[in-house]
Amino acid sequence: MIFSLTRNELLAIENGMKREPNDVELAIFDAQWSEHCSYKSSRTLLSLLPTRGKRVILGPGYDAGILDIDNNQIITIHIESHNHPSAIDPYGGAATGVGGVLRDILGVGTRPIAILDSLRFGDIEKSSHSRWLFKNVVRGIADYGNCVGVPTIGGEVEFDESYERNCLVDVVCLGLGRRKEVVLAEASHPGDILILVGGRTGRDGIHGSSFASRDLASGSDERSAVQIPDPLTKKIILEATLKAHSNGYVRGLKDLGGGGLACALLEIADKGRSGLDVDLSRIHVREDGMSPAEILISESQERMLFVVKDEFKGEVSAIFRRYHIQYSIIGKVTGSRRLVVRVNEAKVADVPVDLAARAPLQLWPSKRPKYLDSEGSIEKPPLPRNINETVIRVISSPNLASKKWVYEQFDYDVGLHTVLKPGDSGASVLRITNDKFIAISLDGRPNHCYRNPRQGAMSTVAEAARNTIAVGAEPIALVDHLQFGNPSDPEVFWTLSESIKGIAAYCRFFDLPCVGGKVSFYNEDADTNRAIKPTPVIAVLGLLKGARQIRSRKLTRNGRMIVLVGLTENELGGSEYYRYIHEISGGIPPKLDFDRERGAQRLVGDAVRVGLLDAIDDCSSGGLIAAISKMCIAGRIGAHIELEKILSDCKRWDDLLFSESQSRFVVTLDPDNYQGLANIAKNHQIPCSVIGNVEGNKLMLTNNGDEIFSEDVYTLEKTSNDKIPSIMGH
Predict the structure, then answer these.
(1) 36, 78, 207, 417: the active-site residue
(2) Is residue 696 part of a domain?
(3) Has 129 been annotated as catalytic?
(4) pLDDT at residue 438 is higher than 70
(5) Of 82, 207, 448, 481, catalytic
């Protein structure tokens, strides 16, 4: 068996154990000390993130973050990725990514109620390989979620050539439960028994964590590291687990994900300050001749590890038999602080939990990338001659076009929680009770992060927060997923460091806790040493009280006034317009001013609470024209925008329309309500400009009375909806 442990790590193991480890013990350390499981390269930086808040019950370090949403109800949230597996086997990799995050939510004793996904692929207009990945990743997510009966309610998709070799597949899951029923991944009572439940253990997924902790190389076949999905078994395990938990029989619970049984055992022992004694001969396996090391590090799917008080093993076993689920009583909790592994009576591994559970920190050098010196300032591109053609091309680019082709493959209504569905707004909304709702937005800004990782990361959080505010919610927490190339590259590590510092600065200023997340390294082509763009993905969770507070981007009535909240500045670095029309990757991206951002957020939040606003949308990716066109398409109604009324320092129409300046919203309201909005804006010192009206069936732009763009909404909708299906051959 091949291991990824470094020479220094091997020495640390030998010194800690006071002897040479055998191959089974090395397999345990190899899994647990992989980058994927140990966070050895990022733990120090992650400690910068604030994790406490008035609603936080449980922050990072467990399978899911837990938040109090009043009346003994809790929301749980976790984000997972399956990037490397999806690059090799897009269907299986994406499906098992969904399965893994569902188990994380189940692992704290809550029922999964919603899934969101954030996806990145290469240029699907040019690459058949990226189209293949895109098609099968979406199919894998859809088939798994639909089969289990958990709705996929939102997310985002983006295309860029940096993801050609390394697609990114992130999945967020929300769970619902009661505070008094929380169970954790802990084995803290010696004498309790360990029960392994679910699918048989096979050779699929072996070295999966190690595989996720190195660069991808062309021509390599790592399919054995990709797990096999089984959503039907998952559905049964979900119901059986919740049944056993509801009866109070379960004292600890852990899903078997990265690192398989080895890492699950170490985690529950470490969290519980205990030891474990396990017999592998009792485990139900799928293949003959599996070695102890293979059984321990297999990442076969649909498995959960239960910690049960010995006196309840009969009742718990009866529940599993009733649901026709395989289970094995594989060992017990001890007070030894050691993980002892046996095959029958023969001891095959004996490792100290304190040593094995904590990989030594890996400190990497850091250096500002050279490309930032050469591409910061660029020559202004020529003004396009045809305004209509340029606007249509931008708003129907694959990154801004409707993702209906994606979300129509998902069952987003199952479970009856979904209020705002994919495409309705920048955030999705779930009903918890008749007057309590949860909003969630999932966002990434890799083009901005590429130009300025700290500002780009802050802007990513800000956009996700604005999206939750735009539907009427108050942001209460976030989870992050940080995706980068090889951390041993000083320039890559610098972008990671800057991104985390940006997220931490935003969270501290806005008192927004981070309750969980993931780090995914080695998203890099080993043959070319080309890394993906820095890609922090942020999910912001919001709480909303009262159905009357819910807003969407949908325009509803002729005669409504259109107001742009905030300033539009000449900030096109990293914009979709520069990238798609001019093929420019350089330029200075928008800067986020915390005071201005807070003022804009509070302005919109206050205006919603007093009932002044109708439709609301965040103005960011694609600029003002993208926001307005989405609002028109959602309401199937037109708008007249007068460009000269926009508060801006822009000199050209393309700067004005496509700038991705931060801290902006587009809102509509009854003209009689404008003075109330103006008063709130004055209190928060945020400029607002009346830029037009909702009217007719066309989106029309004028400048000092001259018409510069006009297109009927039906054509805009058809162009946007048809873009991705036409690329995909549908």
Answers:
(1) 36
(2) yes
(3) no
(4) yes
(5) 82
